[in-house]
Amino acid sequence: MGSKISKADDILRKMLSEKRIKSIEDKRVGSEVFDRITLKTLYKLANAGFIHRLNGAISTGKEANVFKGLDEDDNFVAVKIYRVTTSDFKKMRQYIHGDPRFHVRTTNKRQLVNAWVNKEYRNLQRAYEAGVNVPKPIVAKNNVLVMEFVGDEEGNPALPMRQSVILKPEDTLNKIIHYMKLLYQDAGLVHGDLSSYNILIHDEDPVIIDISQGMTRDHPMSEELLNRDIENIVKDFKKLKVNVSNEEIKSTIKDV
To answer: Residue 138: phi, psi to the nearest 5?
Structure first.
């Protein structure tokens, strides 16, 4: 194990010293994030100008790490790197299966992860074009997704809703329902994992993130996922003393 980490670190240092990614400050990351193929992918994205520098991790999850980066024009970007070794392949197969946009050999783990990243990119693109407040997708390559950084001008990332002080919870709820409606009606998607964990608060406005598992509206699972999203939002806002029914949200989203 140690030799693999050392080898990956050597490759990483070489890439950082030779090309445009200058440093990585978070020393906790190891070979399971920056494996050989990921390093090559970052190298290509650096050469294309999408990434000039990687800084510390914004978030660290079981399947992916999100890093704060800078592009070649020194604009902040968010760089999401999926780990092939720890990804939940059963979940990925479940959410990709039946999606007409993707035809992938589900026995090939790396191909599955790459399809998952492409799925998140395309879902973000559809949501963004529909007017949903999501990070603007910039580029997806293999297991790396580069997107708009959500935070202030100093590079401080926006916090998830569960960690934020919500000054006007009713207004925030109405905005979230509006974005859910745009996502469903105009983008033709259901988020599938929407909750206070996957909503950032930036300038008092909710920003919906982590849309990789999002399903098209005509998918057989979409109704189940929509109901789950609604239930999560109702629970989250009950904690903020805002009472709203599942039926009320659903009728607004579907215009019925």
So the answer is: -110, -55
Asked if residue 203 belongs to a domain, the reply is yes
- Provide the annotated active-site residues: 193, 210
The verdict on residue 10 lying in a domain is no
Structural domains in the chain (count)? 2
Rounded Cα distance between 98 and 183, Å, is 19
CATH code of the domain in which 224 resides: 1.10.510.10
Instruction: Supply φ then ψ for residue 146, to 5 degrees.
Output: -110, 130
Select from 22, 35, 112, 38 the least CA-distant residue to 80.
38
Q: Are residues 130 and 58 located together in one domain of the fold?
A: yes
Q: Clarify whether residues 27 and 124 are in a common domain.
A: yes
State which of 95, 127, 148 marks the end of a domain. 148
Distances (CA, A) of 228 to 71, 107, 193: 37, 28, 8
Q: Which residues contact 90 (CB under 8 A, 6 or more apart)?
A: none
User: What global pTM score does this model have?
Assistant: 0.85
120 and 207 together in one domain: no
pLDDT in tens, the chain (256 residues): 444 444 444 445 544 444 445 555 444 445 557 778 888 899 899 989 999 888 888 988 778 889 999 999 999 999 999 987 656 667 776 777 767 777 666 677 888 888 889 999 999 999 999 999 999 999 999 999 999 999 999 999 999 999 999 999 999 999 999 999 999 999 999 999 999 999 999 999 999 999 999 999 988 889 999 999 999 999 999 999 999 999 999 999 998 7
d(CA 58, CA 95): 25
Q: Which domain holds residue 231?
A: 159-254
**Phi, then psi, of 148 in degrees rounded to 5:** -60, 140
